[in-house]
Automatic annotation (TrEMBL):
GO MF annotations, alphabetized: DNA-binding transcription factor activity; sequence-specific DNA binding
GO terms (BP aspect): DNA-templated transcription
SUPFAM superfamilies listed in its UniProt record: Periplasmic binding protein-like II, Winged helix' DNA-binding domain
Native organism: Ponticoccus litoralis
Protein's recorded name: LysR family transcriptional regulator
Family matches, as CDD domains: PBP2_CrgA_like_5 (cd08474)
Amino acid sequence: MRREDIADLTAFVTVAEEGSFTGAATRLGISQSALSQIVRRLEDRLGLRLLTRTTRSVAPTPAGDRLVRRLGPLLREIDSDLAELSEFRDTPTGNIRITSVEHAAKTILIPALAEVLPDYPDVSVEVIVDYGLVDVVADRFDAGVRLGEQVAGDMISVRISPDVPMAIVGAPAYLAEHPVPNTPEDLVEHRAINLRLPSSETINAWRLAKNGEAKRVRVEGALCFNTVELIRESALLGQGLAYLPRDQVEDDLARGALHQVLEDWTPPLPGYHLYYPNRRHSSPAFRLVVDALKARLRRLG
């Protein structure tokens, strides 16, 4: 196979995976017009239409879809093999892509990476915050960070945090107008500031438990966000009760800006895990990140 054939096939697969010439051109680092010419040249050479183009989207034809399904895994394996060659370099190098929920990125990834990346200038890490259950293989991530119970069984899973203490909190002004809840059933009298989960398009359930009795409660409310910080800010403004990691409201509780309720009903969540596909090898850059996260957990005890 000619070298240009491999390059053209790689360009085609990238367009099909991205679903657009714009995204694929950005990913490949070439112009959109050049990429369009490459794909058209490949189609002409094969005598087949590989992509169906509309004004809004690009999708593979049946022939193109078959080619993507056959070539996609092969090209990813080649990329992985090339990345592994970096172990023969004196220092780790490469880009690591991680999908993570916001709280884990803020409290775990950023502190751990800040300790090691200054010493390895050829390593870069891209963290994408997403509360959905991301398929790291399909979405081309090297790893993901989620609560341990959310990790699929076919992934390698490495614990990187202790359990996560949670708190249900409200501002003094809000609690002055609403009776303090003593049981989960009392929450029907309250407004919640909720977290939207993109995978299921539902609001995040509050996990409550006491004396062996566990409940998952969804409390109605007028406000819903996709970031912890916006939920906290709304709680401070007295817009309702919020279910948040306790470390994110510790200072607010200490200065009386927020009060915790149902403390005896609010257990910690299981700790965060780093998960990634079961590969025979991983690059030195990836192992550097994994070791940094493990080291941080050991220090936390």
